[in-house]
Amino acid sequence: MIGVAQPQPTPQKRITHDDIHFETPPVPKVFTGRDPVVKEAVEILCRKGQNHLAILGPGGIGKTSLALVIGNNAKVQRKFRKLHFLPCDILEDVNDILQGFMQVLKIKPQEGKSDHDSLYDYLQTNKKAVLFILDNFETPWNHKDGHVKARSLIEKIATFSCVTFILTMRGMDGPGDIPWHKLGGSSQIPILSIEAAREAFYLISRKDKSENTTEKVDNLLAELDCVPLAIKLIAQLAKKIDIEALSRMWNESKTKVLSEPGTQPGKLTSVEYSIELSVRLLDPVAKDLLGALSYLPNGVPNWNQTLSEMLPDVPEPEIKVFQLLDCSLVLEKSEALMMLAPVREYIAARYSISDFFRNQIEIFYVGITELISSDSKPGEIWSYIL
Fold first, then answer.
1. Tens digit of pLDDT for each residue in 30-82?
2. Kind of pairing, strands 331-333 and 181-182?
3. For a surface tag, which of 65, 71, 117, 250 has the fewest beta carbons within 10 Å of its beta carbon?
């Protein structure tokens, strides 16, 4: 009798030390406009005890660079003899995260002992303060079981007194019940000031400053909303292309020009790739809502009140907004929903507004226009649009 072949289990992927090494970026050479945030972070980390940092914000805002600069600060290094960087965009699930910890700590698997027990035993006996940068933690967090398993693992690791985390993540809050210090306060990491953006542009592009070009550079940087990744990529192009041509390319092609020529698209080399990493996490309704919001360059003022009236045929639009906020595709500023310019331009081109959403928005603003032309009290009108 011929036996029936049984399916073989898929071999578990192993994360190697080389995997982590080659995905760990160097400390950035050009780093402008973040001194107050770095100072705040160093002060928090150097307090007594455990003080975990969460660096939150959209893709391209400079979270990884900020974490590296903070982790390599001289005062931080005096407290933490060891700094370990875990590139969580290659650590897709809880098993990968566990292997990542094992590799950076050089813990060898032991026969008859699970990896997590080996890790916990190491941390239990370790007496020296150790700092881990968990970079791009949204990757394992958004895995199908990440909210349970990844959360459980890092919460357990955080119970060891020797451990401190710097976590970077797209979203509004750090994961789990760990007492995160949100760097920059309750809001996310902000965009750069125009002065810091200009300084970064000239340092990267090596262009000569002149009164004639500075105004044009500032106008272009403002069009990019002073987003660090966009500035870096446009400045690299400026090494070969003059500012007038760059401005024309941006006006014609928008985010298509924000990529590093000759490289594989990635989160550090392409604005569109970075945005798409977040978009792919959305369900269809949230994606359609994102397309609709890109239709509104000034965002949605007073959105908690306005959105349900603007989109009466969308069930619970606020729930979908929370999805967008969790992916850092939209930002909340002074009770208004906003999109950074590179995100808005990419979404408008790639995920154009549907007729279903456009009709509701147009009806809403026609109603506002009629209110303005009527005898309605100014307060009734401005309550919608301020």
1. 999 999 999 999 999 999 999 999 999 999 999 999 999 999 999 999 999 89
2. unpaired
3. 117
Burial of 90: CB neighbours in 10 Å, binned 0-12, 13-18, 19+ = middle
- Check residue 249 and report its DSSP letter: H
Residue count of the chain, please give it. Answer: 386
pTM above 0.85, yes or no: yes
pLDDT, averaged across the chain = 91
DSSP 195-242: HHHHHHHHHHH-PPP-HHHHHHHHHHHHHTTT-HHHHHHHHHHHTTS-
Non-local (6+) Cβ contacts of 175 within 8 A are: 137, 141, 147, 150, 151, 154, 167, 169
Sheet (strand 130-135) strand order: 82-87, 130-135, 163-169, 53-56, 181-182
Helix H or strand E segment including 163: strand 163-169
What does DSSP say about strands 82-87 and 130-135: parallel, antiparallel, or unpaired? parallel
